[in-house]
Amino acid sequence: MTNLLSNIPPMSYLDFDALPTSAVILSPDEIDQAAVFSNQVINESKQWQAYLHYLALSAFEQWLQERAESLTINREQCTILQPVLANFISGVANLQVGAFKVCLIATGSLSDEMVNIPRVVVDLPEFIPHFYVLVEVLEEQEAANVYAFLSYEELQDNLQTTSLQSDWNYQLPISCFDSNPDRLLLYLRCLESSAISLPVIPSNRSAILANIQNQLVELLPQLQSPKRELFEVLTWEQAAAVLTSPELINWVYTLQTQAAKENLETGSAKPESTDAFASLQDVIKLITQPALNAGRWLWDELDDLAASLSWVLLPSFADASQMRPIRSPEEEFEVIATQLRQRGLEIPVQARGAYQDLLLAGIPLRLYAVTWHLLSESDKPEWSLLLILGAPALSSLPSGIKLRVSDQTGILDEPGLNAESEDSYIFTRVVGNWDEKFLVSVSLIDGVEVTLPPFAFNLERLRN
């Protein structure tokens, strides 16, 4: 990937006479960090804006610390620090200052009479702030100036009379902003955040996404090129659904990152693939479909969804040796489990499983799912899901059958059965954090497919 910042001329010596008295001096480390960070933005046309916005964040934090030490700054959810969002949002949204949300708009020059404000931070409640703050970044002088601000309510009033719109940006005259940033400090210190009413995030985001999922499956793979903008492919309504879905915007970012890497290695990106469409369909299903809670199996319980789909609990593995010698799904599973142990895949005794019988194009199938929780050195506990696809009575599976498992990042595994295989089943095992879900699909070579509801693992709400 080309680094546009490599052409930036060396910073000149500071001309103190030319700087505003309120200017914040940027350290060499902050400038270096901005350069490194902006190169993570895969859309090369936005690397420069990301560079300016990172410097604006550093300058604004320093400006606040020098003037209002009592104010707490939280940059944890800041969009500019998340390459996925920085690639699509030109601004520093979701910066928390005390009880207020602040959005920084960086500009390299205040000579223009109009200010571009991304529609994302005006129309989508997930990113709307209490205050919009203009920061003039004087990068050649290694300085920045917190110049002016505007509250959300004032912005809405001005949009009714003075704004223009293009490429999903609102343009406002700079005269609409309050050029006395000391008043912003006063508001941040003394005003109640409830005094500036912000719109509530809609509770039907998943329903909206479900209604347009077919459109998105058709359109989103067209965003494979890192040079393509959302507004070139999607309507605003479609883009809003993507931008407010972390899983989908991550999917687009991953798609573009892979294309950029391929382009760097081979000189050209691969055309859109069927894998991209299948992966996208799976991600949308993970977001929009209810999930069955495999965590309840550890308590010998099925949730309502699993029960309605005729899942059947297997006996605990500690009791497996007590099963009667009859042909049953439980006995069939013990035969498979023994073969898996011989391959080096151990199933712990605390694991619990269930099975479901399926019909795919008239072919009877049986899917076993086994889950257990894992000890993890990280802060986030993990769980394991073992999936085994076979046929009743351990009969042969059709050649070409595949078992696909996806999470929010895309397809994790897609084992299949070829004509030469002597196995009577196929299996895969995946691991995720407790808040991660997995989607499982079974398909035949002619494209016939069945997708099960997502598998989740929730131990905290077992008794709710």
Automatic annotation (TrEMBL):
Top-level taxon of origin: Bacteria
Annotated keywords: Plasmid
Name of the molecule in the record: DUF1822 family protein
Organism for this UniProt entry: Tolypothrix tenuis PCC 7101
Lineage: Bacteria, Bacillati, Cyanobacteriota, Cyanophyceae, Nostocales
